[in-house]
Design brief:
The chain is α/β, with parallel strands linked by helices. Helices cover 42% and strands 19% of the residues.
Length: 208
């Protein structure tokens, strides 16, 4: 093999290495980046304070009713984002705290607060008189809905999430897709303040 053939052979090897090596490196780097972002080791500036639900769940198509028994149209009077807390007829302790932080997060959105509604969903069909009084006094404009627990569990089955897990609330987009949730380990005020700030950061990116 002469010198020219050796040079050509080296060039061919480099071409082959480029063809097969570059994609392998890209895949490796993409995989590493995925795990770093997923574990929140790095932040790419995306909406990642809440946990995305994949695939999202079509909440608006459930058989939703108000506690007075009338059918509820999610898109009326206009499509909005919604912070949604799921609970029972009493909504005490962690449930009440999550409803509180959801409400305060909406208020903290400032000019964009009108783009988000607050929804409470009971699986008991009714709410207690004490809870109704609290809603009347502290949660003006709150939509109180009722849905059967079995219906919720069927909706959530594909997500692997427990719909009534403690210390959690959900985000529903204007088309009725339940697409994200927030959950905390405790309901101390400092924890809730941190959560509220994270929610507001996320929603300011989402609401255009």
């Amino acid at each position: 093999m002469n010198e020219q053939e050796k040079i050509q052979l080296q060039k061919n090897r480099k071409v082959i290495l480029g063809i097969f090596g570059v994609p392998a490196v890209v895949i490796l780097l993409s995989t590493i980046l995925y795990f770093l972002v997923n574990s929140k080791t790095i932040d790419l500036g995306t909406v990642n304070n809440g946990e995305l639900i994949t695939p999202p769940l079509q909440f608006a198509e459930l058989s939703l009713n108000t506690v007075s028994g009338s059918a509820f149209d999610y898109s009326a009077p206009e499509p909005k984002w919604a912070f949604t807390v799921l609970g029972d007829q009493h909504c005490i302790n962690a449930c009440e705290r999550m409803l509180y932080v959801a409400r305060q997060s909406i208020v903290a959105l400032g000019k964009k607060m009108g783009r988000v509604r607050l929804i409470y969903v009971t699986t008991d069909g009714v709410i207690s008189s004490s809870l109704q009084q609290r809603f009347d006094e502290e949660y003006k404009g709150l939509d109180v809905l009722s849905v059967e627990l079995a219906t919720l569990e069927q909706l959530f089955a594909q997500s692997g999430l427990q719909p009534l897990a403690a210390q959690r609330f959900y985000v529903i987009d204007p088309r009725g897709w339940l697409m994200m949730h927030y959950q905390v380990e405790d309901t101390q005020q400092d924890t809730l303040n941190t959560l509220g700030k994270a929610v507001v950061r996320d929603m300011k990116r989402l609401i255009k």
